[in-house]
Amino acid sequence: MGEGFIRVANTTDIPPSKMKEVQVEGENVCIANVDGKYYAIGSICTHEGGPLADGTLDGYEVECPWHNSRFDVRTGEVTSPPANEPEPVYEVKIDGDYILIKVKGRIESSPPQFELELLEKIKVEGTDVMSFKFSKQSNELGEDKTPSVSD
Ligand code: FES
Q1: CA 90 – CA 78 distance, rounded (Å)
Q2: Cα gap 151→140, rounded to integer Å
Q3: Residue 117: what pLDDT?
Q4: What is the side-by-side order of every strand in the sheet holding 89-95?
Q5: Which of 11, 32, 60, 140 has the greatest CB tally within 10 Å of its CB?
Q6: Number of domains in the chain
Q7: For the chain, what percent of residues have pLDDT higher than 70?
Q8: What's the average model confidence in pLDDT over 14-26?
């Protein structure tokens, strides 16, 4: 079987115009059957994480059940907002009755711009207030920022 392809479902599991979510190597993938041809894109909506496989498939467009963003299952592109980030696309191969997909060298998301490291968590005496101090903070006077509780 071709390199990198993983068997994820049986073709009979996903009839035409239907979708199914599968997990492959820790990734959630939505497999869609459009007129007997299978496509695979990420199944977690790039808007707020809606489950695309639970949405509706209209031609080549999958509509998120949460806020109706639409994605093209061939390209992963957004075809209707509110989402504005495309879904990842996976290669699909059919082998007999099986659907295989390839999870390409995972594209690590770029490192965060700001990395905040929690240095201290201080319980402020006599109150329910916690003071948090982060490494990114230039102002060492964490206490000043602590909201005070008056009785
Ligand atoms: S979570 Fe999918 S459109 Fe908002």
Answers
A1: 16
A2: 27
A3: 60
A4: 5-10, 98-102, 89-95, 37-42, 27-34, 19-24
A5: 32
A6: 2
A7: 68
A8: 94
Q: Is 64 helix (H, G, I), strand (E, B) or coil?
A: coil
Domain encompassing residue 118: 114-146
User: What is the 3 state secondary structure string of 22-61?
Assistant: EEECCEEEEEEEECCEEEEEECECCCCCCEHHHCEEECCE
31 CA → ligand 1 middle, Å: 18
Give residue-wise pLDDT tens across range 82-141. 999 999 999 999 999 999 999 874 444 444 455 556 666 666 666 677 666 666 544 445
Virtual torsion, Cα 49, 69, 107, 31, nearest 10 deg: 90
Q: Which residue among 43, 47, 85 is best mutated to probe the pocket of ligand 1, counting the most ligand atoms within 8 A of its Cβ?
A: 47
pLDDT at 109: 44
